[in-house]
Amino acid sequence: MPTTLTTSKVEQLLAPLLASLPAASVSPQPPTALLPLLSPILRQRVQLLSSTSDEPWLPLLCYDTSKVSKLEQAIRNDRLEAHPVSGEVEVDWESEVGIQYRRLDQETLQALVILKDLSLSVRLVWCVGDELGGGDGWRIGEVGVYDPENQLGWGNEDIASAESAFASEPSQTSTQTNGSLSNLSNGAQALEEEDEDDDYWAQYDSTPAHTPAPNHSPAPQSMQTGSKGVDDEDSYYAQYADVQPAMDNHDPDEAAQNGTVETSLGQDDQITSSLQKKPTRSYRTRQGKSMGLGV
To answer: Which residues, 6+ apart, have CB-to-CB distance to 275 below 8 Å?
Structure first.
């Protein structure tokens, strides 16, 4: 749970920062002791960008590039010079520091620390689970310049007031009011979409089915339906037994009707026919029988 910033806590966070600002305008690397005081996001930004650049790391503390030049002017203040004995910047933390709180969303609580006499402002962020920074606590989120026009009335004077202001915002009230009804509205919407789907498919159920007539294939029925056993296969080949090949002009049945003898080779029809047409001579044997010889 976020805790209110005490004077000692603000001093613990900002004293090392103020002491490092004059050198930040000329040095490319931040002091290692300062890194745990930064928020995880700002810490990563400073570490990564400063490691790949030779430019001063001061601009990395400010996300708004248009205000970097004002920040560079503000750190030229003589009051930022460290005390020769203590080595710290002299600040009256009780009277010179103003603090405001503001919650941005459910997870983000910020505090704005204004150092009016130094023309500086520091935005703090409540961080949870920050191991490098020592666990839950306030961390430095951004360093900027004091801007009275935009920073007066920025937030509330305590955390409780900031929480109440956040809860009373119109967007939050709307969210809380509609939150309990969100499941019902989502369920009603789902049912409505389901009904629309049912109506869509119902119109196809009421449409008479018209199945196109099958096209008859010129192939034999056995070829269309496949083999149906040995009898079907026999009948399939039997229907081709009476088919006359297109390239063969010899018909065995016709030859049988005409009395033509078909040889095994099917090529001696002409020889047989010529023998039948030759005249024959008869001669008489000793027994008185006559025999005919073809000439």
So the answer is: 294
Look at residue 87 and tell me whether its pLDDT is greater than 60.
Answer: yes
Q: Is residue 138 part of a domain?
A: yes
Q: Is residue 163 part of a domain?
A: yes
| Residue range(s) defining the domain that contains residue 81 | 7-170
Q: Is residue 183 predicted with pLDDT exceeding 70?
A: no
* Count of domains forming the chain: 1
Task: HSE, CB side, 13 Å, CA atoms: give it for residue 111.
Answer: 27
Q: Using the 8-state DSSP alphabet, how is residue 138 labeled?
A: E
Degrees to nearest 5, angle at CA 212 with 211 and 214: 120
The Cα–Cα gap between 192 and 94 comes to 62
Residue type, 173: T
Strands (E) across the chain are located at 97-103, 109-115, 120-127, 137-145, 280-284, 290-294
Share of the chain above pLDDT 70, in %: 61
- Give me the residue label for tokens 């920074």: 133
Strand partners, 123: 112, 142
Q: Give phi and psi for 6, each to the nearest 5.
A: -90, 165
Residue 98 lies in a domain: yes
The rounded distance, in Å, linking the Cα atoms of 92 and 85 is: 17
Instruction: Say if CB 283 and CB 290 are below 8 A apart.
Output: yes
Question: What would the DSSP string read from start to end of 186-216?
Answer: HHHHHHHHHHHHHHHHHHHHTSPP-PPPPPP
Residue 40 within any structural domain of the chain? yes
